[in-house]
């Protein structure tokens, strides 16, 4: 054990020197809703880091729904979904999600990470071929590895590179894995081209809509609605309840056969405790609000344009989503920028490798409909002066 502790202490020291060390910080929410938090030193910070895109996580309707369900069902589900953990509120949520997306069925999972693992593991065979965007979320990368299928990572957002690889062919079925909105860059996947390629090569596209549902398209229906695609063809979608929904948990949506297979085969579904019923109730309340939140979505996208226009010279990555990344490259520079923003009252942590590729450290700014225009203007000013000195 001593040699193990020694090895890891040395590693940790190395990470610190390289600006790669991560620390866990408790932020106390101010007033129970909104985006203001207090750090350990008592400093109040406006967060530009959460994925609470519609500011629903503290919404009174969600609280009311959760509290009512708590009174009825208690706190934990107490068991796996197939062993008595399923409550009527889970079924009601799954049904409402499927209706919202115009899909036949939905299966709930404990988290997006689990949903991606289960979906890919259940469907993709060892002899199949997986083609994954290079910047997919870690859960899709891990899911691909777990499946045991051959894995090729195509150039980010590049259908031509994907087509070149698909043309080479191989055994088994081809699967394409992509985020709908990329979590650390904020750009939107070229969905029409990916679906064309899936059709052409008899492949299936698995799309992770974690950052797209609630944010993009009419009714917040995500990337398909954003591109106004009505007949997508070979597409299976996954979404999370922990981002625009403001809750926790996730789901896979698609044809009935898919949900039937996942229920039998997806290990991360079969062997996990069902979502706490109160969270399912809060998610149901969130869905009602989210579907009708067109004004909030318009505000959110106006904030995005406003931020970019206020800082046109910033090293922005291309993005049409509320995820706005300033590419600083150097870990130390990203950390220094984040510290300066904190001094100005903003919480905006530096994102560094391995979350992003080497030499691409950045500030990942996430906007929310809960932000006001004056707050975004103030952030832009703070960014401007921090960029000037770091
Ligand atoms: C694109 C993407 N997929 C999946 C996940 C995992 O979702 P969850 O946090 O519900 O596990 C996340 C974020 O956490 C994500 O950004």
UniProtKB/TrEMBL annotation:
Q: To which species is this protein native? A: Acidithiobacillus caldus (strain ATCC 51756 / DSM 8584 / KU)
GO terms for biological process? biotin biosynthetic process
Alphabetized InterPro entries for the sequence: Aminotrans_II_pyridoxalP_BS, Aminotransferase_I/II_large, AON_synthase_class-II, PyrdxlP-dep_Trfase, PyrdxlP-dep_Trfase_major, PyrdxlP-dep_Trfase_small
Tell me which EC number(s) this protein carries.
2.3.1.47
- Known partners and oligomeric status: Homodimer.
Sorted keywords for this record are: Acyltransferase, Biotin biosynthesis, Pyridoxal phosphate, Transferase
Q: Provide the reaction this enzyme catalyses.
A: 6-carboxyhexanoyl-[ACP] + L-alanine + H(+) = (8S)-8-amino-7-oxononanoate + holo-[ACP] + CO2
Q: Which pathway does the database say it acts in?
A: Cofactor biosynthesis; biotin biosynthesis
PANTHER family linked to this entry: 8-AMINO-7-OXONONANOATE SYNTHASE, CLASS II AMINOTRANSFERASE/8-AMINO-7-OXONONANOATE SYNTHASE
Which family, according to the similarity comment? Belongs to the class-II pyridoxal-phosphate-dependent aminotransferase family. BioF subfamily.
- Domain Aminotransferase class I/classII large: where? 44-381
Q: Which parts of the chain span the membrane according to its record?
A: none
> Its Gene Ontology molecular function terms?
8-amino-7-oxononanoate synthase activity; pyridoxal phosphate binding
What protein does this entry describe? 8-amino-7-oxononanoate synthase
Give the cofactors, semicolon-separated. Answer: pyridoxal 5'-phosphate
